[in-house]
Amino acid sequence: MGETAQDPQSATRSAGRPRDESVEQRVLATVREMLVEVGWDELSVRAVAARAGVGRASIGRRWQSKAELVLHAVLGETPDLGPFEGTDRKGWIEWVLRGSRELFARDDVRAAVPGLLTALDRDRQLRDRLWAGFSTPAAALFAAGDTESRARSELDARAVIALAAGAALFLEFVADGDDTALIHRRIGELLHRAVLEH
């Protein structure tokens, strides 16, 4: 895409006025629609701005790159921790597995993944922000209350996130077949055994 902008947070602060949340909602919804319709390669900030009815500068102030824009559109700016509330560790693992499967089965995510993987490979900072922003809060919930081995528990949680997401991605894009549902179920059984019974 080649279109970049300054840090969106500093730009918003310097503007001295609150963000228009309706602009963000329109833009992100448009990105998801266009990913399904035209795919990653044909998606551009110019086209998104035109369809969403906003200026390119408004998009540039909020998102530094096409990759960041697409990530926020398909994942959200911060993780939704609601499904983890009130669950035990077994429920936490089950939600990570289910959430990963549902995520990579979405049409907009499927359209975004090939381009996003390339973009993340080229942008270490974005990759680091993505991993830290989404793994750290969830891992902290998994480890809550485990004061004696909190570091180990958080490591276990990040490992489960990586295994669940990696398996869901691989089964969606590479090994999708008649036995996919059985494989997903078996992965869950193995993860539960490895994490909860060790």
Give a structural overview:
The chain has 198 residues and is mainly alpha-helical. It contains ten helices and no strands. The protein has helices at 8-15, 21-42, 45-52, 56-62, 66-75, 89-105, 107-122, 124-143, 150-173, 180-196. Helix 2 packs across helix 3 (45-52), helix 2 crosses helix 5 (66-75) and helix 6 runs parallel beside helix 9. The longest helix has 24 residues, at 150-173. It is globular. The protein starts with 7 loop residues before the first helix and ends with a helix.
Gist?
With 198 residues, the chain is mostly helical. It contains ten helices and no strands.
| Average pLDDT rating | 88
Q: What is the molecular shape? A: globular
Instruction: Count all strands and give the number.
Output: 0
Provide the low-confidence segments as ranges. 1-16
Estimated radius of gyration: 19 Å
Proportion in helices: over 70%
Could you give the distance between the termini? 47 Å
The DSSP helix count reads 10
Structural class, by secondary structure, is mainly alpha
- Report strand %: under 5%
Protein traits:
198 residues, mainly alpha, 10 helices, 75% helix
Secondary-structure topology with pairs:
Elements: H1 8-15, H2 21-42, H3 45-52, H4 56-62, H5 66-75, H6 89-105, H7 107-122, H8 124-143, H9 150-173, H10 180-196
Helix pairs in contact: 2-3, 2-5, 2-7, 5-7, 6-9, 6-10, 8-9, 9-10
